Amino acid sequence: MDEVIEIIKQKDKASEPIKVFEKEDITVLNGRYGPYIKTNGKNVPIPKKTDVNSLELDGCLQIIEDYK
User: Fold this and answer.
1) 28, 31, 32, 47: which could form a disulfide with 19 (CB 3.0–4.6 Å)?
2) Do residues 52 and 28 touch, judged by C-beta distance below 8 A?
């Protein structure tokens, strides 16, 4: 039973945003295939070498631009 509760807690934690930049409508999330940026209805994968915890707005904008 404890294992089930732990799995549910982990799933809830995964769906929470890592960072939110409201002025630019950018949200950093952790998805099934790794972290990604959600902006204007698009999902942009974050490169594996990027530390999402230290990612700031400028870094997000650069990743979005490079993805285009």
Assistant:
1) 28
2) yes
Contact (CB, 8 A) for 66 and 58: no
What 3 state SS string does 8-63 have?
HHHHHHHCCCCEEEHHHCEEEEEECCEEEEEECCEEEECCCCCCHHHCCHHHHHHH
Contacts of 61 (CB under 8 A, 6+ apart): 24, 26
Q: Which of 25, 26, 15 is nearest to 55 (CA)?
A: 26
This prediction's pTM: 0.75
Model confidence pLDDT, tens digit, residues 8-35: 666 656 568 889 988 889 999 998 889 9
Spatial CB neighbours of 44, under 8 Å, sequence gap ≥ 6: 36, 37, 38, 63, 64, 67
